[in-house]
Write a structure and sequence with these properties.
Layout lengths: L9 H55 L18 E8 L2 E11 L2 E11 L7 H7 L3 E9 L9 E21 L33 H4 L6 E9 L9 E7 L7 E7 L3 E9 L7 E3 L6 E4 L6
Antiparallel strand pairs: 1-2, 2-3, 3-4, 4-5, 5-6, 6-9, 7-8, 10-11
Length: 292
Amino acid sequence: MKNKNSGFTLAEVLVAIVISVISILAAFSSYNYFNKAHKSVSQKATINNSAREALSIITKDLRNTGYIHVDFTKESHPEWYLIEFNQKELGNLDQLIVYQGTSPNSWIRTIYSPKNYDKCNFTIAWCNKYGNGMYLAKTIIENPTDPGSTRKVIYENIEFVPNIVDFQVVFKDREGKEVYPVCSSYCNRLSVSQGAETPSNNKPNKGTLNMPKVYTAEIYLTIQSAKEVFNSNRATKITNHENGIYGNTQNFNDKYHRETFFASVHTRNLAKPIAISETTGESIGQTSSYNK
């Protein structure tokens, strides 16, 4: 009886190996592509969520800024503490300070400040996660000008928005003109040519007097992805509020994704309208520039 052995020829084995290698490479390439796409989408989604949540909170604070409870007695001149702005607090990034009353016996100061990460002085994991970038910090102080026991730091310089690239604040009056300076304790940093005046005889300076004129506040917030997104360097230019006194332009050439978010907020407790009589055409009353 003759035995018949069946099997693959060398040519068939080689063809099978080649097909298997091609299939594996195709699968690996597809996985690599979709993995990068997922990381890119994930990074962009993280940026969007972070920015939208932050702007929602900042918008709420700006709408409440300048509110002073009718029975508030903690501060002799509450009208001096409404809204503040410090241009170029860190590099070309701004600082925003808002005040609002919370009860007849308390009020709070909220500070949004750009801060540097600690230059990778911690662990390698920290360095890989944050690098040498910046973040937007938030501070809340209750009864900030009271030297007594009622002054309370709720929290100080917590990380509010990670990996920021730019934070610009633009104040405008009812006519749409930029208001500058708008500050209180920081006005002494400005030169006379910029409109600053030295406080004397316990009187507010020009920057303080400009606070009730703020009708709208425009916020520009640019955030960078925590990790590289693109396969090769890309040249990008970011300009936030190009014209006017305020504004900042930056150029980049790297693999990071950046996105700018914008909000324009009406400061309803500050620059209030004048009521006009329809019969006489004359003013029948003007609300105070701040709520008290």
